[in-house]
Amino acid sequence: MDKKELEVLESGNMTVVVAGAAAVALSIIGLAGILPIVLVSAAAIAIGVSLVLAGMAAAEEKKKILASTQGGRYTSPGMFTVGLGLEIIAGVASIVLGILSLLKMDPAVLLGADVIVLGMAFLAMSATDARENANKLNAPELTKAHRISYESAKVAIDIQILVGISTITLGILAIIGIAPVTLLLVAFLASGASLAIKGTTLGVRLYEERND
User: Which positions, given as ranges, span the membrane (predicted)?
Assistant: First the structure.
């Protein structure tokens, strides 16, 4: 990818980080007891926006990678339909469920289902990210700076796995009725933090590539 394309990806990725951080901030304020029902719904929407943007940014990056390895032709979407498809679908679902929750349509059940879906999406995304990161780490031409960047990405992937498992558990407990608002706020806080970390890691790598 040329520098202009990398700059565009960096800008899109920054939006992902901001949306993830917004979800963290909203969750913390909600946990402090300020409009928790409203803020947990807003956090769900912020997570959804972050996921959709992350999926779009990653799809564009992989499209460019495939084009560069296929003589400029992008012909095989199968490489990222599973991970990225779930990323965008889960994001849209989170936005819709967050809006319905704001309308007071049984928020505990709706958002409990939402965090379960998000957890499964995080696990699927982790599998895709881990496979791709391992392939990049094994590249013989990898520079020391890029190797450090991909090693950092491994940590972000591990965090994403833990968040995926945790959010599924918290979603189930919320649907059962065990302190649903508090557990949902914690789930969205963890999800937002995971997305912000992932976005920051990707942003650092894009910056390094742009300055090579």
Answer: 12-31, 37-59, 80-103, 109-127, 155-179
Please give the structure tokens belonging to residue 76: 């095989």
| Of 56, 49, 97, 104, nearest in space to 80 by CA | 56
Closest residue by Cα to residue 118 from 73, 193, 171: 171
Question: What is the separation, in whole angstroms, between the first and last Cα of the chain?
Answer: 12
Q: What is the pLDDT of residues 122-156, one digit of tens each?
A: 999 898 888 888 887 777 777 777 777 788 888 88
Give, in order, the Cα–Cα distances in Å from 143 to each of 30, 51, 69, 118: 44, 30, 20, 34
For 13, 199, 204, 211, the CA distances from 17, given in Å and listed in that order, are 6, 5, 12, 21
Instruction: Kindly report, residue by residue over 80-104, the tens digit of the pLDDT.
Output: 455 567 889 999 999 999 999 999 8
Cβ neighbors of 54 (< 8 A, separation 6 or more) are 13, 16, 87, 91, 195, 198, 199
| Residue 8 CB neighbours (<10 A) | 14
- Among residues 58, 25, 56, the alpha carbon closest in space to that of 42 is found at 25
Answer for the pair 172, 120: CB distance below 8 angstroms, yes or no. Answer: no
Q: Locate 207 and state its tokens.
A: 């910056």
